[in-house]
Design goal:
Number of domains: 2
Helix content: 10-25%
CATH superfamily of the largest domain: Medium-chain alcohol dehydrogenases, catalytic domain
Distance between the termini: 17 Å
Number of strands: 17
Strand content: 25-35%
Order of helices and strands: EEEHEEEHEEEHEHEHEHEHEHEHEHE
Shape: globular
Oligomer: single chain
Radius of gyration: 20 Å
CATH class of the largest domain: Alpha Beta
Structural class: alpha/beta
CATH topology of the largest domain: Quinone Oxidoreductase, Chain A, domain 1
Length: 338
């Protein structure tokens, strides 16, 4: 197999440079995908910068890759050359531990992240275990589908896994790369949706994404006016907020669910949890079965992320655009290695 051309960081906070590597023989349970598009997620930026102290260099980012299968290992099941697939945060898992057998393979202790100790999708070709190469429904636009594989499933999973009902009222904190998709999925789920944003200028746009009302997430008084109104509040941001006020927006038995990587400790008043029988939880992306369900749901309801495109050769410009907070609302890189 010929070498793979890619874009890689050689160390924390370094610009990406052209990089080539020999992938070695294709594993018996692996597929190789010719990457056509790859989403640029804020997690890519965090891993490039080693914000989570888990990065391994040289690092090829990219975990929202879509393209077509060009090779399959001899033990691959259900996939074939030429098929459109996508690979998200994980490229492998053991598939024999109790967690994997229960369908939660994204929580496998030996799950293989696509961009940590593995070459990601900012490359002309990408490999993954076949279970993590998710077939794309024909109704989805392949050019914008990439961000669904990480951001989309991240906000879809809580609706599915915690039994959110169409009669429920759901809040989404943060109208960005995750949050704008959270609004779309919650609206399509049938819920009444409240958007929380620190930018009043995003109010009308949030309503266009599915919000029925909009509250300023930096205005504690406005948040308290929404007390006792939500069944679930999904936090998609990674910054500290007035957690006490946000917790009060929940009804009894309500859930504050965190999908944004807030690195600072979150002070949560125990008595509010106890007297309201409320819950605080978090989740990563989702298992392969959840990814399949999410893509089917998105295709059925016409849900797509709002994206901006950059050629992959301008990946450093795209990273700067993301880091400056200018992305509206997800970035997709178009592979241009030829």
């Amino acid at each position: 197999m010929t070498e793979i051309q890619a874009w890689a960081s050689q160390g924390p906070k370094q610009k990406l440079e052209k990089f080539s590597f020999n992938p070695g023989p294709l594993g018996p349970e692996e597929v190789e995908i010719a990457v056509e598009y790859c989403g640029l997620c804020h997690s890519d930026l965090s891993v490039i910068n080693d914000d989570w102290n888990i990065s391994q260099y040289p690092l090829v980012p990219g975990h929202e890759a879509v393209g077509r299968i060009i090779a399959v290992g001899e033990q691959v099941k259900g996939l074939q050359v030429g098929q459109k697939v996508g690979v998200g945060w994980n490229a492998g898992s053991c598939m024999h531990c109790p967690v994997c057998l229960e369908g939660d393979n994204s929580l496998c202790a030996s799950a293989q992240p696509t961009i940590i100790g593995h070459r990601g999708g900012f490359a002309e070709r990408l490999r993954s275990h076949w279970i993590w190469a998710i077939p794309l429904p024909d109704a989805l636009d392949i050019a914008s589908a990439g961000p669904l594989l990480c951001g989309g499933v991240t906000v879809f999973s809580p609706l599915l896994n915690f039994g959110v009902k169409p009669t429920d009222r759901v809040g989404v904190v943060g109208i960005g790369g995750l949050g704008h998709m959270g609004l779309k999925f919650a609206k399509a789920w049938g819920c009444e949706v409240t958007a929380f944003t620190s930018h009043d200028s995003k109010a009308e746009e949030a309503k266009g994404f599915g919000a029925h009302r909009v509250i300023n997430s930096r205005d504690s008084n406005a948040i308290l006016n929404a007390a006792n109104s939500l069944d679930m509040l999904m936090v998609t941001v990674n910054v500290p907020l007035d957690w006490t006020a946000l917790l009060k927006t929940l009804k009894p038995k309500g859930r504050l669910h965190v999908v944004g990587a807030v690195l600072e400790p979150m002070p949560i008043p125990a008595l509010d949890l106890i007297f309201g029988q409320k819950s605080v939880s978090g989740s990563p992306t989702g298992g392969s079965a959840t990814l399949t369900k999410m893509l089917d749901f998105a295709a059925r309801h016409g849900i797509a992320p709002q994206v901006e495109h950059f050629p992959m050769s301008r990946v450093n410009d795209a990273l700067e655009h993301l880091e400056s907070g200018k992305a509206r609302y997800r970035i997709v890189l178009d592979a241009d290695f030829a």
